[in-house]
Amino acid sequence: MSGWGTVRLVLAVTCFVWVAVLWHWQSTQHDMSVRDVLVHLVAMPLTVALLMRAAVWAWEGAVARMGSASAVAASAPALAQTTGGQAMPDDRAAVRVCVQAVSVRCAAGTSVEQVAAAMHDQAPRPRLDAQLRDADGLPVMAARVPGLGPGSATVADPAARSEPPSAALGRAGRLMQAVVDEIACNVGPLVEPTDEAPAAAHNPVVRVLSVWPAELTPAERGWARQRVGACVQGLAAQHPDVSWHALDVSFSTGVAAWLDAQRLLHMLHRQQRNDAVLVVACHSDIDATAIDRMHRAGHLFSSARPAGRVPGEGAVALWLAPLAQVGAPPPTHRPMTALPTLAWVRGVAHGRHDTPVDDRGRARAGLAVELVQQASARAATGAMAMAGIVSDADHRSGCAGESFAAALACLPHSDLADTHLAAGALTGHLGPVAPLLAVAMAAHQAASTGQLWAALSVADDHERLAVRLDPPADPSDTDGHTAPA
Questions:
Q1: pTM
Q2: How far is 302 from 370, CA to CA, in rounded Å?
Q3: Phi, psi angles (nearest 5°) of residue 172
Q4: Which of 64, 134, 152, 434 has its CA 20 to 30 A from that of 94?
Q5: Burial (Cβ within 10 Å: 0-12, 13-18, ≥19) of residue 81
Q6: How far apart are CA 155 and CA 25, in angstroms?
Q7: Tell me: the pLDDT tens digits for 436-472?
Q8: Which pLDDT tens digit goes with each residue over 295-304?
């Protein structure tokens, strides 16, 4: 019930009580006193209205609890829409996505090895920022990437064409350029010279899918599109033997970006093409404008709002490719260099909460547990069991409780200090970067340990995502696929 509803309730109860009391006094010819007026005309209406308001509040709470429980139960059938589920059509269930290279930048480190070590040690943590202040003039807890100042020479920025509308957007652009440059160097030559390719064959294609925060203004979105275009031009100059196609810039969540990349890879598999997909996401809250925006929205972490988000910044890039089926006809494009496989995506599950995760401080872990179990369903019958979970959970009780409950349910006999790695507590709020960072780190863990890992995204208020990542050489693999050498 809103504030005006409460006022209308008090007025209605007061009018009813006054009419009843005055009629009773007139019919009985009661001699009124000051005490009678205070008790019957003031205290009684307020007491009745308070009791009725408490009853309405209790009823609304019961309805909300029933609605959240039914939403979780209703989302379970929808979880069959996954790449590892039994209800998926055969042509999509047979597609296996290769994660061939990853690059990350965040406050926890500037490489996957540094971020993995930081997650195991749970350090360094966000700290009070010397430059950022809230509305009260107090320092803000933030997770800033070191060495990324306005004039930093540590990050190459050759494609910059104009000044960004905000300092945070400029930092996000430099972080994006850093991960793109690193992943372009890591993949090496993309086309090997060969005499077997026909002369009319086209160059292989790499499709670039970039993701930026959804809250950007129209001016900031225009600059972001221009920045992505310049970045793709730099890639084309570095690898002229490859056709680089920049897809429409996405201003959404990381979960939506992953699902878009997954649908694109399924389409490439059906068309029997060997195109690769480069997914890039960036985000930054490190400037006064972003801090003020978070404060006005009630999302800024402070002593008065411990459930708020810690400002952070970061970027991630994933080089993905569909693993073609054995016996597929040759594509019309020149073959791309067979890159080493970092990990295989064998199961994806997606769900959504109808209400925000921190609504009234209640943690709802059923959906996260079900998603991880759905994504790793094949692990129960194979020779390899799940070894750990990488999540983007931060300090907030709602998402941290979901992530921990999923780890307890899926890793009951393991030491969660080593098998449940939460990146959000170290990186701060990363917006669309957070889910993709969890996938990248889970792929690194699968490759470095030779075991099955899962990525779980719970940082968003509504969206939930679980991804199963297998190591390059999976001894339980019996479906006829072979990893690239």
A1: 0.74
A2: 33
A3: -65, -40
A4: 434
A5: middle
A6: 84
A7: 999 999 999 999 999 899 999 998 888 899 999 988 8
A8: 888 888 887 7
Beta carbons of 345 and 351 less than 8 angstroms apart: no
How many residues are given for the chain?
485
Burial 104-134 (b: 16+ CB within 10 A, else e): bbbbbbbebeebbebbeeeeeebeebeebeb
Q: Would you state the structure tokens that stand for residue 451, as one six-digit string? A: 């075991």
Residue 389 near residue 372 (C-beta atoms within 8 A): yes
Dist CA 231 CA 218 (whole Å) = 20
Contact 285, 142 (CB under 8 A): yes
Structural element, H or E, at residue 397: helix 397-410
Q: How far apart are CA 216 and CA 224, in angstroms?
A: 9
**CB-count burial class (<10 Å; 0-12, 13-18, 19+) for 280:** buried
User: Strand 420-422 to strand 386-391: parallel, antiparallel, or no bridges (unpaired)?
Assistant: parallel
Element (H, E) at 135: none
Q: What DSSP element (H or E) covers 452?
A: strand 452-457
pLDDT value of residue 478 = 37
140 vs 128: CA distance, rounded Å: 5
The answer to whether the CB of 176 falls within 8 A of the CB of 235 is no
Dihedral angle, C-alpha 93, 462, 104, 211, nearest 10 °: 80
> Distance between CA atoms of 335 and 325, rounded to whole angstroms?
15
Q: For residues 243 and 249, what is the distance between their CA atoms, to the nearest angstrom?
A: 18
DSSP conformation class of 321:
E
